[in-house]
Amino acid sequence: MMLTFRIRKNNSDFFSRKNHRAIAAVVAGLIAMSSTPIVSAQTATRLSWQTFAQDSQRIASLKRAITVMKSRDAADPRSALFRTSWTYWANMHGYLGPYSTDGNLLQLANTLGTSPQFLQSIGLKEFTPADQETSIVWAQCQHNSAYFFAWHRLYLYYFEKQLQAAANDPTLRLPYWDYTNVNQRSLPIEFAQPTYYALTSQGYVLTRNPLYDLRRAAQSITLDASMVYVALYNAWTSPRNFSDFQAKIEDNLHAYVHNAVGGVGRPDMGQVPLAANDPIFYLHHANIDRQMSCFTHKWGIDKNVLPRNFFNATFSFVDTNGDLVSNPVADALGSGAILDFPAYENETNCEEELNQFSRFDMLATSIVSDKSHESTSPISASVSPTPAMTKQSVAAVANQNSILARQALNGSASNITISHQENKVSIKFDQLELNRALQESKRIRLILDGISYKKQPPVMFVVYMQSKTTPDLRTPIGFLAFFGPSPSTTMQHDHRMKMDQHTSNKLIREFDVTDSIRKLIGTSSDELIISFEATTGRAEDKNPTNINGDYPVNIEKVELRIDH
After folding, report:
1. Which has more confidence, 136 or 430?
2. Could you give the 3-state DSSP secondary structure of residue 524?
3. Does 23 or 62 have the greater pLDDT score?
4. Which of 26, 368, 420, 476 is the most buried (most CB within 10 A)?
5. What is the pLDDT of residue 132?
6. Does the model's pTM come out above 0.70?
7. How far is CA 470 from the centre of its chain?
8. Structural element, H or E, at residue 116
9. Phi first, then psi: what are they for 451, rounded to 5°?
10. At residue 95, does pLDDT exceed 60?
11. Residue 402 pLDDT more than 50?
12. What is each CA distance from 59 to 186, 261, 478, 488, in whole angstroms?
């Protein structure tokens, strides 16, 4: 067979209007090729990308599926064909429009400090559901919800079926980006190239890469090893139950990767209503789903901490014919799951991935397999500003100790405002009580309570801990990664759950600091310094843009607590 190569000396106008016919011809060729079923060696297992990419047929099949789905974006919005398009499926996760619970272009522009015209210039659009079925399935993603794992598992299940149908390849399985493997933290190169040579009925033709998203923060991205480490550490060290594990994965690892790839608050990956437009979204969430599989293989699901009728909650999608389908959570999780979910290449030892990252952090990497902790009580502590903090950094400081044991907290609010590149706060505590807790092998947690902001910061914040007696030694214990609507405004999704118990629209974050404290605190120390340092989360960006007080984040309480 003769192969034809069409190479331009200058590709600067590759995406110009004059090339539309050539691009359309390539798409038509790929669609024509998809009419013949593909048979490959792929099994009913979701593979890591590094394994998936070893077979060029698998990559070709994935690219063909996405290309075909994107070609259907121009179909009649009322048609069954449009319900199998890329845009339709992305909009199931979220979308912008006059009737969307995610808001519209003007609201997003105000959040980002830009104009709707600029957002339109980079390809963003508003949508209106064309029928009742569409209004049911669009913008249904579950975040800060008891159903985060369950909804996304069902979403990936039906999305994978759509990929198979579009590629005409029943063996195609959605791969996962294995960034929790210390050697796989970089965005796969296949997603970073705007063009590639596609094999069509006309031979190899230079065409758009359907895996590429020009709106990413960068195309050369390596996730920061210490941030992946602390995200895994907080999730896998003494997970108390399924709900606890789910919240920690969502708030940390999940949100972090969205922000590092897309840019904090930026289209596509950094914004909930736009994230699913980027193909890497699905590989990211496949890895998040794999983390859940690892947990349930080891621990199962503790029904006692789930909402009443959790397994009866029902979510709707569309099938490969564009017809509405609905499934209860029971179909996706637990022993009663009836859908044919594929296994993952590695879904039994995810917590062991922590050991790969040990050289990037001073923390002990041994996993404490203890999920019996169900309640916490505060260590006696008062919060006061260190000399490094300015009047702008701390609005008010409590002068009362928190009440011990199981009594309610009093006087521990500090109203910290993170408004600069680095901010610090010190916490004084009872050393004898702390030592007793460590001797009894109890877990110590740092609680950041009542987090809010009015304007989404363009960065995340790494949370560090250090002892006042050894100020040159510090360790990352977690981070604040903001993914979703501002917690200072009313949540439009009625399924929001993980909010502050006192103020319904403020966030809580907690980090296991037991091993950090063992490393950092001497027998005579009774004071810790907690610092917040701005970061993009990308290893390439050592000095992120200074926020200069323009994006203040308020934290009402900083507390140490002992698990019971």
Report:
1. 136
2. coil
3. 62
4. 476
5. 95
6. yes
7. 34
8. helix 116-121
9. -85, 135
10. yes
11. no
12. 18, 21, 35, 42
Give me the helices (H) in 317-463, please.
431-439
31 and 93 both lie in a single domain: yes
Rounded to 10 deg, the angle between the 255-262 and 280-299 helix axes is 160
Confidence of residue 159 (pLDDT cuts 50, 70, 90): very high
**397 and 436, same domain (yes or no):** yes
Residue 444 · residue 437 · CB < 8 Å: yes
CA distance readout (Å), 245 to 141, 149, 310, 447, 533: 19, 10, 16, 16, 25
Give the pairing of strands 527-535 and 422-429. antiparallel
pLDDT bin (cut points 50, 70, 90) of residue 110 is confident
Largest Cα–Cα distance of the chain, in whole Å? 82
Residue 481, φ and ψ in degrees, nearest 5: -120, 115
SS3 262: helix
Partners of 108 in beta bridges: none
Distances (CA, A) of 438 to 373, 392, 564: 15, 36, 12
For residue 333, the 8-state DSSP code is: S
Indicate if 247 and 385 belong to the same structural domain: no
Q: How far apart are CA 156 and CA 383, in angstroms?
A: 44
Distance, CA of 260 to chain centre? 9
Q: Is the distance from CB of 238 to CB of 91 less than 8 angstroms?
A: no
Among 308, 333, 350, residue at a domain's last position = 350
Lowest mean pLDDT among 41-55, 267-281, 520-534, 540-554: 540-554
Please give the average per-residue pLDDT across 102-111, as a whole number. Answer: 91
Q: What is the CATH number of the domain that holds 463?
A: 2.60.120
Q: Is 458 in the same domain as 547?
A: yes
3-class state of residue 445 by DSSP:
strand
326's enclosing H/E stretch is strand 324-328
Residue whose entry in the numeric block shows the structure tokens 């403020």 = 506
Output the CA angle 21-23-207, nearest 5 degrees: 150
Per the structure, the complete domain to which residue 545 belongs is given by: 375-563
Exposed/middle/buried for residue 203 (C-beta within 10 Å: 0-12, 13-18, 19+): middle
> Span 270-290, mean pLDDT?
97
Is the four-CA dihedral 158, 164, 170, 176 of positive or negative sign? negative
pLDDT digits (tens, 9 = 90+) for 218-270: 999 999 998 999 999 889 987 778 999 999 999 999 999 999 999 988 999 99
How many H helices and E strands in the chain? Answer: 14, 16
Q: Report how far residue 263's alpha carbon sits from residue 538's, in angstroms, rounded to the nearest whole number.
A: 10
Domain edge (last residue) among 350, 366, 390: 350
Here the CATH number for the domain that contains residue 240 is 1.10.1280.10
Number of domains composing the chain: 2
List Cα–Cα distances, 26 to 4, 195, 338, in angstroms: 13, 12, 39
Q: Are strands 45-46 and 343-344 parallel, antiparallel or unpaired?
A: parallel
Tokens representing 130? 């064309």
